[in-house]
Design a protein that fits this description.
The chain has eleven helices and four strands; from the N terminus they run ααβββαβαααααααα. The chain is mostly helical. The chain has two domains: 4-123, no CATH class; 126-252, no CATH class. Strands 1-2 form a two-stranded antiparallel ribbon. The structure holds zinc ion (ZN). Zinc ion binds next to helix 4.
């Protein structure tokens, strides 16, 4: 049961660095309707966001009844874990139409966004080998003719469905397609690298370490795939599709995801 007297404290304006955190969490777009926060009006930039309380800072008597048994985040209502950036319209709708369903949805949205940002930060300092960049870059520039000539993996060698359940069926199909098409090529490219300057097992351990960091942070498989792809993209500045093909390679190669029980 929520203890309103201790949780709901005086309103505190967010500091500039807290605002930066809230905007970063939602990629500077309203997480409810997708509206970008940077807007122009009469050729001037205007602020398109507001910082909303997930659990109200000063609940009305009706809200106190509705929300008496919900989950709360942080130590009090002014904790950054209880605030989220929204556009003006979504903020107003949320404040004017409180229900347990809407509250739970907002609570989960904030928790997911916050967790994903925390996870992104945890792996962002981890560098990746320049050889990996070279191969991703090569993937991005393969012509149709070259792709036709690649040796493909046999279907029966696929291990992806041993690790990804039906819940993620679209992602699984995409990874399987990437693996069938490119796995043999990528493995050969790694094998062609000079042993004195590159160790596949050391690199694979780095990838595994990044995966475990995201998994232990509680991200689901689809969010892990997205974060790993974005990590490769940020570190290599290569095409995002080529980065996702490389992530798929590591799924098949067992650095990402464990076998299902
Ligand atoms: Zn909105």
């Amino acid at each position: 049961m929520v203890d309103f007297d201790t949780y709901c404290i005086d309103r505190k304006n967010p500091t500039p660095s807290e605002i930066f955190l809230y905007l970063e969490e939602v990629d500077s777009c309203c997480p409810k309707c997708g509206t970008p926060f940077s807007r122009t009006k009469d050729s001037k930039f205007v602020k398109g966001y507001e910082i909303a309380h997930v659990f109200p800072n000063s609940p009305t008597p009706v809200e106190k009844t509705i929300l008496q048994n919900v989950r709360i985040a942080g130590t009090n209502s002014e904790d950054p874990l209880n605030k989220i950036a929204l556009c003006h319209d979504c903020h107003k709708y949320y404040d004017d139409n409180k229900s347990v369903e809407l509250y739970d949805e907002m609570f989960d949205l904030k928790a997911t966004k916050h967790k994903a940002l925390e996870a992104k930060k945890l792996i962002s300092n981890q560098n990746i080998e320049s050889e990996l960049t070279q191969i991703i870059s090569k993937l991005a520039s393969l012509s149709d003719l070259e792709i036709d000539g690649l040796k493909k993996l046999e279907y029966k060698a696929l291990k992806v469905s041993d690790k990804i359940e039906e819940t993620y069926i679209l992602m699984r199909r995409r990874i399987e397609s990437n693996v069938l098409q490119y796995f043999t090529f990528i493995r050969q490219e790694f094998a062609n690298l000079p042993l004195d300057s590159f160790r596949f097992d050391t690199m694979a351990l780095n990838i595994k370490h990044a995966y475990c960091t995201l998994r232990d942070k509680g991200l689901d498989k689809s969010e892990i795939y997205k974060q790993m792809t974005n990590w490769f993209e940020r570190k290599t500045a290569c095409d995002v599709e080529a980065c996702s093909i490389m992530v798929s390679f590591f799924v098949q190669d067992c650095e990402i995801y464990e076998e299902l029980p």
